[in-house]
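Listing 4. Sequential folding, example run.
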Amino acid sequence: MVETKEKLIAVRNLQKSYKGHKVLKNINLSVEKGSVFALLDSNGAGKTTTIKILSTLLNADSGSAVINGFNVMKEPEQVRGVISLTGQYAAVDEGLTGRENIRMIGKLRHLPQAIKKSDELLDAADRRFLKLYEACC
């Protein structure tokens, strides 16, 4: 069990692999309530992966993470209710497709049926685009 009494964020032994390549190896960190914390390291060190796990956008392979008393893996809805997240650039993650970005924004805003609704809107946009393309070309 992670001790979270005076911690806003408590991470213990966080691990994540992609295709057998470990990108996070036993990450441990804690952030005291009322403090300022910066996550800095070189490219490829796992900063984005760590943030995606802490913001419930990605699942860890193992380890634990607690934010404001909520277990990131077991209580993602509660975690999303107490955090805010903004990307490094405008409002999109360049590593995601347009569809994935829209889904992510819907999920972060707690929109009911975010994935279904974003798919419906994008499918309708695709149909309109195809009609316009067929009419002009």
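-- end of first protein; second protein begins --
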Amino acid sequence: MKRSVWIVALLAFVALALVACGAPAAPAGEAGEAAAGEAAPGEGLMTDVGTPRSETLIFQTFDRKAANPDQMNPLMDYAVWRGFRELGWGYLWEMDTGTGESYPELTESMPEVLNDEYTKFRIKLKEGIYWSDGVEFTTDDIIFTFDAYFDGIGKLTNGNITRITNYIKSYEAIDKYTFEVETVKPAYDFTTVMGVDTWASAFIPVPKHIFEQQEDLAAFRNTYPVTLGPYFVKEFDPNGFWQLWERREDWERSAYGWMGEPKPKWVLYKDFGPEESRVLAFVQNQYDVDTFMSPDSIKGAQQRNDKITTFAPKMPYHNMDDACSYGVMMNQHKAPLDKPEVRWALALSLDLKDVGINSVSGEFKASPLPMVDTQILRPVYFDPLIPWLNELALPDGYKPFDPNFGSDLVDRLKEMGVAESELPSTPEEISTGFGIGYWKYDPAEAEKLMASVGMNKNADGFYTLPDGTVWELELVIPGDWNKVMQRVGFSLADSWRKAGFQVNARQVDNAEFGNVQNTNALLTSMLTWYNCTFTPNYLNQWYGISPDYILPADSTELITGNAWRWENERAFELIAESKTMPTTDQRFRDIGVEVLKEFVTDMAFINMMNIPTTIPTNEYYWTGYPKQDNYYAEPYSWWSSAKEMVVNVEPTGMK
């Protein structure tokens, strides 16, 4: 770890020396360019897009480069990672990422339930909200959006179209600010389906006065859209590397203007290049909030700039309360992954301590359940399952759970030189920091499981199929658009190879990543963040656990549910039952516990860790980011937390 930090610091020093010697800057619009512009005497620095640096909050992009930067139509597969969710769109109900509670954004209150069956709802919009071009937002926009969703089935490419059209039965405007909706089935999750559950909403209102003028909504790119949020698109890079947002003069009339004035006049989402280039740019105060920087790079940057901070002062240093987890999705329709013995063998061949240390310097929180272990979900789903996990046995009697995973990880980190003062010490602190435990690393037991289904090692030590040929397992992982996840993927592949699996770790870009995940013919296995549950309402993630969404193994049709390709009759029955009751009922939560047991028993998804949201912030120009001791929101630039961030940060006065 120390050697890695030294190398990163050395690279940053060399890069700084090159800059000082007059190394040429990259052309405007390209990744890795210098963001600091020339300043006139007595003025502050300007960004390379022509805005005062001291008035511009700058985020590293989530996906690095957008494949479709001019596509801003939310009815289509659009450039989603460019600030639309945070700055441009508005939702009926939002999610407080600090508490997991829903709250009204475009609406006056939570929906009024009109019948005992929980299928009819009345919604009242806030008055006085306007689109960025000055046209008032009313139920006309809501009804037009519903019409567009239903009329566009089969033509519109946003996957949420299917979700809403399968969920809503009818809708009508009552007056200018009131509308009613009837759902196909009892909808106890109405506020999170029609509002926000984790990342965003399946229902994005569009402006009727703009969209009704278009002959073909599927062909309409909506470039430079009118917005409901307090910012509008000022400019964007046609090559997909950056997008600039400017605060509306009438920000108080926007979707969340009632929260207070957003402090930055401009917000820039920009890719600063590969991680080595980003470290240099970050050290030079060229941007303010990173997205998944490797821990060793963060340490190297902190050694050169004391304004660079992490979420917490102790390990694992970062916020681990993202809704999603890293884990291995397997196509259970394809042999031999259709056998639970093989899936369990893969789980027991995963040395998560080594993977976590090699990829993220041990800064992670393990989770054996296909769910994130957070302060919201721990008491509801994890604590009740700890006794069951301790007693869980495979058919041969083997007990796979290791409750000492966290304490053993602490010991390993101490041996590697991590100071005791930076590590949790009590059992409670270790559990909070590193998780409740994980699966044992036991290649010997894995070999027994593989042998039980006719798969044995050859003379070279690799597992073969029953016909004697080597089983080559493709593992799809992100390219360097997500450096942290990429490193986790390479470490995972190494762990499996050491245990005897011939693994082909294939890197893909962001667009292909989504296609693989959602297409049976393309998927064998992949490292993904698919399991996303932020509140005790698991239905927004598990709704599709149903035989209705099963497609053939070689299907090229995009899946619309059950991404695990999981066939479990008990789970199907439990999820169907859960859809018939309020999501706050104890029975609903008990069902969640039972579904988790089925997931684990089948090893239908090899969950690994909460997403290690290694997000450093730079406090040279802005301060007041979410921190452990100031936890008003999660510290993510791609969630609703960014809304609270732009309202709460303050300029430091540096020019």
